[in-house]
Write a structure and sequence with these properties.
By secondary structure, the protein is an all-beta fold. It is built from one helix and 36 strands. The strands form twelve sheets. Strands 1, 3, 6, 8 and 9 form a five-stranded mixed β-sheet that branches. A four-stranded mixed β-sheet has the order 11-18-17-15, with no helix packed on it. A four-stranded mixed β-sheet has the order 20-27-26-24, with no helix packed on it.
Length: 340
Amino acid sequence: MKLGIAALVGVAALALVFTSLAGADPNFTYVPGPQIYAEATNSSGAFVSFSFPQAISDIYPHNPVPVRCDHYGGEFFFFGLTHVVCYATDATITRGASFEVIVQDTTPPSITIPSDVTLEANGPGGRVISYNATAYDVVDGGRPVSCSNASGTVFPIGTTTVTCTSTDSHGNTGTKSFKVTITDTTPPVLGGSPGDQTAEATSSSGAAVSFTTPGATDLVDGALTSTCAPASGSTFALGQTKVTCTATDKHGNASSLSFNVTVRDTTPPALTVPANKTVKKGAKVRYSATATDAVDGAVTPSCKPASGTVFKVGTTTVKCTATDAAGNSASKSFKVTVKR
């Protein structure tokens, strides 16, 4: 912002002419200005350099005439407007000229801000970020700084551009910005595993097995529900099945745990045998034994002595055994008594 004073320029830029009754009239061939602008380098002003005015004699145009000024180039000029008056004297005639040196402040404060930063979120809103931003002005010294996102506040997940500004006492404003990127790459924490499960088969398909689905907690999203495959309550086939439970947060970060569900067949078939029998000597004894298995369905028992055998006189114990495909066996017996 220039400090030109229009009302003064017309008067200050006019040559001041002082004459006497005799001698040559000096002429200024060079006068700086009419205005020289310089930028302040501190609160008082600045050292200002300019070319020294020059004058010659009007009688002897090749002869330089001495010039003196009340200020010289390289001197320190105070903030604002200074009139510089110069005089050229040739013999007894003196002519004057003037110009203005204006020391102004158009330089905004210099702002120091942090570098761009990327950090991991550590809470539901993102992360609290603290930083230091300062400003210094060559004229005013230290200046306050105002930033669009204050230090010590929560920055959301994503990239936030923080713009910091500072204005000096002459209305010059400096601006700088930096970026804060908050990421969420931390997966949820799953609760305890249900542990390996063992269940007894209830059919040829296996068995329905229920277990507690693990819970999950995420730094950003809070409580989450995991999903398991196969799900709790599903029918698991005979043998061992791996169950994987996974929790995924809103930013796609996932964590998993696994356990095994084993469905086994250790239950023997249900065996049915006849009641005890009494028969006459020499008769063939016929009977029927049946067996049913939860996994294999109907199973054919094996009995000794076999049905249709002629039993000896007296009492004979018939033992029947039914064995399923898993090797589980059930045995029962009944008695056959032969009378003479």
